[in-house]
Specification:
Layout: E1 3-6, H1 12-24, E2 30-34, H2 41-45, E3 49-52, H3 58-64, E4 68-73, H4 82-95, E5 100-106, H5 118-130, E6 135-141, H6 145-159, E7 161-164, E8 170-171, H7 176-188, E9 195-199, E10 205-206, H8 207-218, E11 223-226, H9 229-239, H10 258-269, H11 279-284, H12 291-298
Amino acid sequence: MGKIIVTGASGAFGGAAARLLLEKCAPEDLIFLSRTPEKLAAFAERGVHCRTADFDDPASLTSAMEGGERMLLISTARVGTRVGQHKNAVDAAVAQGVKHIVYTSLINAHKDDNPAIVKIDHRATEEIIEASGAAWTHLRDSQYAEAIATAMAIPALQMGEKPDNCGDGKVGFVSRDDCVATAVGVLTQDGFENQALPLTGPEALSIPEAMAIVSDMTGKPIDVQPVDDEAMYEYFDAMGAPRHATDIVPDGPIPWSSDDMVTFGESIRKGFFSEVTDCVERVTGRKPKSLREVFEENRHLWPA
């Protein structure tokens, strides 16, 4: 097996994947990329090839990809402009002989009627990879359980209530740890080429059911208030969230748009997140974590 490239190796997902790969591979068989390679110093000290790579600078990518055979392409955060970034990375990788690209996508990104606007960038990137000539694996993650355990549970506990436009739509919440382990499994095993893998946890739950678990664990009631999409926009407006991706201030206080969040909720409501698969266990050999398990791991972050 040739060298494995991890893009964004200084980020949360990339860093976790990098640490897990080091447990399975020789350091000299790993290439970790970052716009801020100084953050990879601990990996470099262990003998990993750590290189500067800026997706907005195609010239920097060509040398960064040299020697790689498989690549984990972690989607960047810049909704609306990241497709061009991803294409730069794919083009450079293929030019340098990368044979297999594993991409972190979104569940049901391929369905035209999925209203979540975040799927637009993901599907466009999937199509670029499929047309590149390299083998591909799309890791179509469901919603991260950690996001529910922190970004949703903490304010809900503080306020005692949560407006929500997801209705009774179910979600196969998946732990980011399980998504990382699956990515590493695909990179280090054969047999997953040219497949899209929907990654989910072991059960599908609605947002009210998820918040009921939080209430049960803390003894604090949380009133989930069903609202329509317009009321959800008004809620995010009151928080100061930008409406559109184009309004997001780089490195600003809120890195997502209400368009993104409201259409994500609509997608859940319409059933695009409801499936439960065995893909995590099939790749990793272990059962995925439940939402309650992830809540237990993050409970120390909750308000007392």
